[in-house]
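seq as requested:
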Amino acid sequence: MIDWPGGSQCFSRVLRELVVLLLLAAATSVLYAQALPTATGPGPRWMVGGTYSFFAADYGKRDLGGGSGFVDYARSERISYEAEVRFLTINEEVGTHQSTFLVGGKFPYRRRWMTAYGKVLLGDGRFHFPYDYADGSYFVLAPGGGVDLALGRSRYSVRLVDFEYQWWLNFPFGTLRPYGASTGIAVHFH
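struct tokens:
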């Protein structure tokens, strides 16, 4: 037998409170006391596009240009994911060029027809050294940001500017730090 500090009155009060609590819990599960959603979002969105890029290569004071492509996947309004490839082969001197294959998170801020965003991408960077001396593959970290402008109510938008600052880690002559901007066009799919 349990000896309660307040005697049998305390035990019966605790027992009553426990029974009331159990009845309330049982009643809410029977009533399915859940609110229905008042609205639903647009669902997942895809954006596919291409840009022209201009980068300061940070290797021999070269400026490189080239094309890039990107795919964005947005499941919510606050975060999306981006994959991008870039080939900087225009204006190469003595065969020096760069390519990147990056993926990461993108954080949009939408205001009517304009979307500003920040992003952090990482992946592989390929560097072709002068005079066909060598090819190297390096880990790349690339924070950046930009602005997309919607073209009315159409499925198209203009990537007004996309800026990236890259760190190529473990590069033979110290960390390579190219930076540049891109501009282009994209198509949206819902």
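The longest strand covers residues 135-150.
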